[in-house]
Every structure is written in structure tokens, then in C-alpha cells.
Specification:
Number of strands: 21
Pfam families: Ceramidase_alk
Protein name: Neutral/alkaline non-lysosomal ceramidase N-terminal domain-containing protein
Shape: globular
Strand content: 25-35%
Keywords: Metal-binding, Zinc
Helix content: 25-40%
Organism: Halorubrum trueperi
Structural class: alpha/beta
Strand order of the largest sheet: 5-4-3-1-6-9-10-12
Cofactor: Zn(2+)
């Protein structure tokens, strides 16, 4: 059987109802979304070589916290498409201005809408995946890279006391590389675009009560308006990287310009790629007012592209944790105080301060509930390759940008699209050097300092085996 490339793409609206529990910032004083600034979407990309088929889903959501929801999407998609579950990838753009979808929210208002929304989202994602599979047609592919500077390292030591906070550190590591894939039909019509970039979608911060996909949604809009291809956005290794504007305040005015900047670069690269691989040659001269060179093109019209899949268990070491009952009691006490302040009509500043304490207590509780009592945890490394030059590499959680940069630099595949924010489980994965200065990401990670090196080396071993 020949390795004939086929590709399908599909899209559905996944915007939640107004009134749902919104965002998850500790500093926010609102609980419900009061409107929609830009719709949220789920995009599916199906790829097959005639022997193996994969489906990649990209959801405009911070993450699906419940492993049951992720498992349901992967399992139902696999059954409908008649493919293995490990051939299905669920990824998140990681927007922080979408719904708060933990089925055990710390919100008192809007939480009653979450279960119904998630149930419908599972069905919608599965249906979109199946639509992409059913729409597959023969295609060609080309890959390239661009450059965009809408991101900056976000681990900032504030000058007054050196405390590590989420800000902007222009001297810290950042990955400006934009990975781009172009898929055309065999007739040369635009089919799909894939954009891979590492930047936390936190442009729109805690002062906003509107639903938005943050800059990734505008990236898709911009690419699709320029190319006519459906665009799927894959978040990169953005654990310690954020946008150059917005975040704490006024981000609602900033995310569209950032998205247009990045989207314009994706579109520029997309147009520079030629899936047919044509080569120009001179054939004759046409005498005119000036002698004009006449050229013809030779095309590489092959559509063979082998498609390989690996799902590999990364065994990652965990730190020690406080007892679960201790962190649960702390969370309940803080939530009771927040409820009292809201009921008594306390000042907004007091509510904001207590909400922050509740959010941090919730993070501690979630970490212990998920990882407590274990010495290690399995994170799924998922790799899809296309031909001998393209590799999609993804892991769960929030890997620091240095992890993605090193894997891409050392990968045997010319075009390596590295992502976090996928499938089941969630936690920051800092690099060893960052533990010394602490900060939000280090303080909340369950992992030991050597975890990043394990991720890097074992990922590269898998890539080398696939390349061989």
C-alpha cells in the first residue's frame, strides 16, 4: 500500500453561554462571564498515509482538568474513526479568558453551568474530529519557519526585593520561532494551515469579564483571511513565556494587535511555501520591446508521505507534599471567608485579596489531590511524524520554553513542532536553573528539579528511533 497523504479539517463553535464561571485569576473580582468579545472554537486536523490516521484537536480553553473528559473525547473519536486512542491528540490553546471548567470549581457563581457545558463540549469535539476524518482528501504538504517577537520571558524579579513574579524579563529565554505547515489539495487549493508558537495566552487578564480566545483566535482569523486555509493553532512550550503587552490590566485592547502580528507572519510563511515543490528552468527568449526570458516549471507531484505514531510513557519524579486533609481544610477555611466577605458587601479590595488566597489554596489542593502519595507520575509523550522531515511532539502540562527550544534544536527532524498543553494531567515543568529563584511556576510544580532533563533526553531518544 502506498503512503498517499490525505488531510481533512473541520471547525465548530465552542463558545460557552454567558453567565458561566469565567477565567481563573486569583485577582479577579467577577465570577461570571458577562459577554463574548470573540467566539471560542474547536478545530480538528485529520492526517492519513493510507495506513495510519491521526486526529489533532485544538480547543480554545485553558485546559480540560477532568481526565474523564479528555478520555471520553479520545475514546469516542477513536471508536468513530476506527483508529487507536493514542492516535488522537487533544490540545489546548490555553486561553485564560475562557470558561473556568474545573468540575470542582472554587467559584460560587457560574459553576452550575459548567457540567452541562463540558458534556456538550465532549460531544462537539468528537463530532468535529469525525467531520475532519470524513472530509479527508488527497493533499500535499510543505513546512517552514518564521519569526515573531510578540513573546517575552515572564519570570521577572521585581527591583524592590528580588521576588520572582509574573512580569516581563527581556533578558530571559524566549522562542521567537514560528512553525508553519501548509496543506493544499492535489488541485492546488488551500486546505489547512498549522501554526506553532510559544506564548502564554494571558494577554487578557483579571480585569476582563468577557469570553475571548486571546491572541490565538486572532491568529486563526488573520491566517484564514489571507490564505483561505483553515488554521489550527498549537501552543508551544510556554511555561515561562508571556505576551509583550497586557496581562495584569487592559489586555482586552491588546490581544487583537498581537494576534494580527503573529498571524501575519504565519500567513507570510504559508504563502512562501510550495507543496508541489516546483523548480523553474529557462527555456527560450521571447523577443519583445525588450528580450524576455521564458520559463517553465518542473513539479514534484508525489503525494507519498509516511505517517508514524508513538505514544511513550515519560516517568517523571515527584516532590513530597503536605497531607491532603491539611490542604483541603485550608482551602475550605479560605473559601468560607470569601463567601462571608461577599455576603457582607465588603470592599472590592478585600474580596480581591481573599479571592487570591482562595485561588492559591485551590492550586495547592489540586496539586496534592492529583500527585500526592506518589513518587512519580506518567506523562504521555505523543509523537506524530510526517515523512522524514516533519514531527509533531507533544506532552501534557506547561513545559518551560527552554525545553521546547532544546528539543527542536537537537531533533533529527528538520521541522519539529513542539507543544505542551495536551491530553491528560497538568503541571508546570521548570528547568533546573529556575528552581533557585522560586516564583509561581516553581512554587506550584509537583516535579523535582531534574524533571526537565528527563523530558528532553527521553523525547530526543524517541525522535532518533523514529528517524532511523
Amino acid at each position: 500500500m502506498s503512503d498517499k497523504l490525505s488531510v481533512g479539517v473541520a471547525r465548530a463553535d465552542m463558545t460557552p453561554p454567558v453567565g458561566i464561571a469565567h477565567a481563573s485569576w486569583g485577582a479577579q473580582t467577577h465570577e461570571r462571564a458577562v459577554g463574548v468579545d470573540l467566539p471560542l472554537e474547536v478545530t480538528a486536523l485529520a492526517i492519513s498515509d493510507g495506513q495510519r490516521t491521526t486526529v489533532t484537536l485544538s480547543l480554545d480553553i485553558v485546559i480540560l482538568w477532568s481526565e474523564d473528559d479528555v478520555t471520553a473525547i479520545r475514546k469516542e473519536t477513536a471508536e468513530l474513526a476506527e483508529i487507536p486512542e493514542e492516535h488522537v491528540r487533544v490540545s489546548y490553546t490555553h486561553t485564560h479568558s475562557g470558561p473556568c471548567v474545573n468540575r470542582e470549581n472554587w467559584f460560587e457563581e457560574g459553576d452550575e453551568m459548567v457540567d452541562a457545558y463540558l458534556d456538550s463540549l465532549v460531544s462537539k469535539a468528537t463530532g468535529t474530529a469525525l467531520e475532519a476524518v470524513e472530509s479527508m482528501e488527497p493533499a500535499r504538504v510543505a513546512a517552514g519557519t518564521g519569526h515573531s517577537e510578540i513573546a517575552v520571558n515572564r519570570r521577572f524579579q521585581r527591583p524592590e526585593d528580588g521576588r520572582m513574579i509574573v512580569g516581563r524579563n527581556p533578558d530571559g529565554p524566549v522562542d521567537y520561532e514560528v512553525g508553519v505547515l501548509r496543506f493544499d489539495t492535489v488541485a492546488g487549493e488551500p486546505l489547512a494551515a498549522v501554526a506553532n508558537y510559544a506564548c502564554h495566552p494571558i494577554t487578557v487578564g483579571p480585569d476582563n469579564d468577557l469570553i475571548t480566545p486571546d491572541y490565538p483566535g486572532v491568529v486563526r482569523q488573520t491566517v484564514e483571511e489571507s490564505t483561505g486555509a483553515t488554521c489550527l493553532f498549537l501552543q508551544g512550550a510556554a511555561g515561562d513565556v508571556g505576551p509583550i503587552h497586557g496581562v495584569a490590566k487592559n489586555g482586552i485592547d491588546e490581544y487583537r494587535p498581537l494576534g494580527r502580528r503573529l498571524g501575519s507572519e504565519v500567513a507570510r510563511v504559508w504563502w512562501s511555501l510550495d507543496p508541489r515543490g516546483r523548480e523553474e528552468r529557462y527555456v527560450e527568449t521571447l523577443e519583445s520591446g525588450a528580450p524576455l526570458a521564458v520559463y517553465e516549471y518542473d513539479y514534484d507531484d508525489r503525494t507519498e508521505q509516511s505517517h508514524k505514531v508513538v505514544s511513550y510513557d515519560l516517568e517523571l519524579p515527584l516532590s513530597d507534599f503536605s497531607p491532603l486533609n491539611e490542604v483541603e481544610n485550608d482551602y475550605e477555611e479560605k473559601m468560607a471567608e470569601l463567601h462571608r466577605l461577599r455576603e457582607s458587601g465588603a470592599r472590592e479590595s478585600k474580596i480581591q485579596a481573599q479571592a487570591m488566597e482562595c485561588r492559591r489554596a485551590e492550586l495547592r489542593r489540586g496539586r496534592v489531590d492529583t500527585f500526592g502519595g506518589q513518587s512519580d507520575v506518567i506523562f504521555e509523550l505523543q509523537v506524530f511524524t510526517l515523512g522524514d522531515s516533519i514531527a509533531f511532539v507533544t506532552i501534557p502540562g506547561e513545559p518551560f520554553v527552554e525545553i521546547g527550544m532544546e528539543i527542536k534544536a537537537r531533533s533529527p527532524f528538520e521541522h519539529t513542532f513542539f507543544s505542551g498543553y495536551s491530553n491528560e494531567k497538568h503541571a508546570y515543568i521548570p528547568t533546573f536553573e529556575n528552581y533557585e529563584n522560586g516564583g509561581y511556576e516553581v512554587d506550584t510544580t509537583p516535579f523535582t528539579p531534574n524533571t526537565a532533563s528527563i523530558v528532553i533526553e527521553e523525547t530526543l531518544e524517541v525522535l532518533q528511533r523514529l528517524k532511523a
